[in-house]
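User: Here's a protein and a ligand (zinc ion). What would the complex look like?
Assistant: Let me lay out the input and then the predicted complex.
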Amino acid sequence: MKVTFLGTGTSTGVPVITCNCRVCTSDDPRDNRTRPSILLEWDDHVVLVDTSSDFRQQALRHNLHRLDAVVYTHHHADHIMGLDDIRLFNWRQRIVMPAYGSKETLDAVQRTFWYVFEDSLHDGAKPAMEMNPVNAPFELLGREVVPIPVFHGDMPIFGYRIGDFAYLTDVSRVPDRSFELLEGVDVAVLSALRATPHPTHQSVEQAADLARKIGAGRTYFTHMCHDILHAETDAELPEGIRLAYDGLVLDNLA
Ligand SMILES: [Zn+2]
Ligand SMILES: [Zn+2]
Ligand SMILES: [Zn+2]
């Protein structure tokens, strides 16, 4: 399996509108972070995790010509606002796009994009999505996808495990039972917002603690805000933990 980080920023993206801080004005491309999303590819299949606010730019940047499914972690705006651009894939591939996520997440996506799910004379102009609520491991295009329940502040959301790869974004706490689902993970992606604590996100230090507890061979941090200068923070991380950046590709994952 191949994993591409389409976006590694927090909800504002980096640079942040109205900000001239050293990260927002950095000329290191790794400090330029679009909204959080990853692309998963195996065999000839292409699966998108979250339709971020920057999905259009991400799809163009990566020359994305095909999409077979969308998997949602939760319904916050930074993770869903690119949904309308799914219609390009509906048109090109002549398919209704299957989407997966918890019932709560998919219900919230439907409320936000109400026009997509209402009959109208303009059906051809809208995205076509088929919502598939999941709350247990499910088969997707020949592989097993395991939802990993985690907390984002008080809100239960899903991370996902596929094979030995796990993606847990917007996490602030992992319940004990979910650690069992993460046993044997080789590559983990965890969100790490900034250096200081936050009510609904892990700090870099908390994310490093979680990484140790999960014990993956390699861990990458994502969902970072403009407090984090890539080169500086990356150099301070323990062995086996790295900051992800937009465009980073991990290939040959089990
Ligand atoms: Zn987020
Ligand atoms: Zn800034
Ligand atoms: Zn969120």
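Summary: Residues 6 and 61 are 9 Å apart (CA to CA).
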